Amino acid sequence: MREDRRRSHLTIVAALLAAGLLPTACGGGGSAGDVPDGDAPSDIGDDAARDEASAPDDGDLGDDGTLPDTSDDGSADDGGCPDCSYLDNPCGRGTCIEGACQIVPDGMGEGMPCGTDPCTDYRVCRYGLCVPEAPLDCSHLDGPCTTGVCDPTSWPDCAVETAADGTACDDGDPETTGDACAAGACVGTPAADDCAAATALGDSSGLPGEATVSGADTTGATDDFSAHCGGDGAADEVYTFGISDRALVRFELSTEAPLVLTLARGDCAEGPADAVEIFCLAGPSVRADRILEPGRYFLIVDGATAGDAGPYELSLRHLWGHIVLIGHDFTTRSPSADRILANAVRLANDEDPIDILEYVQYADTAPDHEVEHARAAIREAFAPPSARTVLFDTLTDSADLSARIGSADVLLVHEQEARPDVTTLNDIGTAWGSTLTSFVERGGILVVLDAYGSESYRLVRSSSLLAGTGLDTIITTVQLRVAATSDPVGAGVPSPYDPPLATVSWSPGVPGTAVVMTNDTRMRIVVFHTWHP
Hints:
Mean pLDDT: 80
Distance between the termini: 79 Å
Low-confidence stretches: 1-78
Shape: elongated
Helix content: 10-25%
Largest sheet: 8 strands, mixed
Number of helices: 7
Number of strands: 27
Strand order of the largest sheet: 20-19-21-22-18-27-26-24
């Protein structure tokens, strides 16, 4: 390290010599930095002459009989330099080394400021020289309300100057106004969270039809809205979304704060008060499903009472209806068929209870036959400790469907093996067309059980709800397997399994995911179709 420093020092000295700023040999005395005029002094003779000239007079003995002290006092050394002090500077001193004046670091430490002010006179000590240095860069401390500055008292660390409170700034949040400095921080006031300044969530009636708000907080927001269940005097935040097609939308608010969620509809020309309230539900957690007609809607997250505020998570998503076609006869019980039917019922959006409307007009309702077996499979699957329950409502007349289906989560069409003829089922399906469409449009689950000779599928095909619906082949001996293990209808189904009596496959034209197929011929036994407009 010492050798490296010496090389660097010599390099600097060489540069100064090249510029004519240093002498090439030792000169006479002078102030630091002065360069004497004239040539370097000549030799005083050979060694003998020099020894003679420098020897003390024998007669000049001290009082104690010794010779006087003639050792080097620092102004010159045995190299013969008379004085190198002209090279002295705040970072080093001139020293005669091997017959030449050189600068030896001394005084201020390496890298320390040697100018009059480290923030204005940018010089520091480098290998004994006071050389120019780049000014201290403090820009990393700059901010909307702060400025990084060089302070001589803290050098080489930067200091921070803060703008006066009230100084205009920009906090970088487009949803705030009146940004101003306060104690070095740029603080903005949340924009008026009315309909005009609402955060847009897009169109929720198309695909994917969902939006999520994370990390939100009503703290610091303004109070612009109140509903019948709360919000008066409490901070609120407003979101807006559109519906271009009739849709079932689920709203969820998750929070530990006392908040309420309000859904309103209208153009809101004069603020939230102009919107028509659809619901107002109190937290801490809210979940609501609503069928919405085309239009502009507003979601308001508000405090329950004056001063209530806090963080929350908000989401909305379009719930699509599902159609599950099961080609199994329930004359006998099968663990796999039972599980498939229960999984189809679990698709219902409502948490609890699940309301099942079962159509049995031409089904076998005799004790211990198809209808009773299907009911038993569902009841057993939802028995405690299941977190959900089911309620059955039996439809015996097709003409009553539109009046009874409004509260249903699942429409279960049992195997209609006792129908008088296929025309009857075709006519019923045609009459059900708009009712079935509205049912699945609002997130309803349609489950159709079919088998050889019943042709229940005609109710779906004639309604124009699912084109191409039909039966293909009866399956009696070939083993079946779950082909879509990640599909919710096939979850946990024992596979492979033997087909129940009179199992049928669905025609290739039926749209949807083939959940269960035959092992060898790959015929589709259970089909799951998510319906959307």
